[in-house]
Amino acid sequence: MNPETSGVEVAGPRESRGDHGEDGERAERGDRAVRHFTIHHDGVTIPVSRGGRGRPLVLCPGLNSTQADLRELTEVLRHGHDVVTFDLRGHGRASAADRYSFEAFLSDLVAVMAELERLDLPSAPVLVGYSLGADLAVHYASEHPGTVAGLVLIDGANPVPEPFITEANAAAFLTMWEELAGQQGSLRGTARQVLLTAQEIFHLNIEIEVVRSGILHRYRQIDRPISMIMSTSMAGDSGEEPTPRLNQNWRAGVERLVREQPHIATFWLDADHRLAFTHAPEIAQIIRKTQPARPTP
To answer: Who wins on pLDDT, 22 or 169?
Structure first.
């Protein structure tokens, strides 16, 4: 299996793009100042960046991706939104943790949102999540009603009818993540590092599949507009099995969700799971179309 295009949480572009810099305030491109600060909670430090103008928007990365990886999407969105990005524990400039679980990552998002509430934003933010970040966004919105203006879910939070990881392919997936961990070794000490081991990533993916098996209940608890931006070839475009089956499973999950929640707006991009890195302008355009930069009076 190809670690860049398989149907589970292996996101993160492979080319080096450089680091964001240290905490503090700096200016980027004209008057779009970007401020950096750190949140301390649950024994970890979470680096946060904020910049741009317009409706507040929080961008949550996924497993194996960092705010540095999402830099192109972030910069495009800042033209019309006040964008907040951050790193999950064990990713990027965030500190390592003694535990990595769905609930632990969710607590990172909760801590960021609580800090933003203390900053007294002019309006509730749009919450955008990529991959695992989409699942975190759905759980957050379901548990904190009224705190977000809407959700944009990028290739995640999908109630797929069949699990991706089975007894038959578990060894292949573990090998894939071991290869990914080896590739990430060169990123240690940079804003794109991932400190999780292959075993930790493997067990997290199994946990994420369990979470997604019950996520329809979460959607029923959300009364805000929801848009989904999904890849047509989540697992890649190979015609050899299991790729076609994994891609069909991904589409079937979205179709299942929309049948139950027909108000959810769905957009498909001709891409694989790396769409947040490869199709940033298209994603930003969809977000601008579905989530106006300025709140409606």
So the answer is: 169
Note the helical H segments in the chain.
71-77, 102-118, 132-143, 170-184, 198-213, 215-220, 243-260, 275-278, 280-290
The share of the chain scoring above pLDDT 70, in percent, equals: 87
CA 106 to chain centre: 12
pLDDT at residue 5 greater than cutoff 50: no
Q: Please give the backbone phi and psi of residue 266, each rounded to the nearest 5 degrees, phi first.
A: -120, 135
Which architecture does CATH list for 24-290?
3-Layer(aba) Sandwich (3.40)
Q: Which of 254, 251, 261 is nearest to 220 (CA)?
A: 261
In whole numbers, what is the pLDDT of the chain averaged over residues? Answer: 89
Separation between Cα atoms, residue 2 and residue 236, nearest integer Å: 8
| Nearest in space to 57 (alpha carbons), one of 140, 122, 135, 139 | 122
pTM of the model: 0.91
Angle at 8 between CA 7 and CA 10, to 5 degrees: 110
Report the pLDDT value the prediction gives residue 291, as an integer from 0 to 100: 80
Cα of 175 vs its chain's centroid, Å? 23
Q: In the chain, what are the domain boundaries?
A: 24-290
Q: Report CA 98 to chain centroid distance, whole Å.
A: 22
Contact call for residues 107 and 131 (beta carbons, < 8 A): no
Residue range 185-202, pLDDT digits in tens? 899 999 999 999 999 999
Residue 47's beta-bridge partner residues?
38
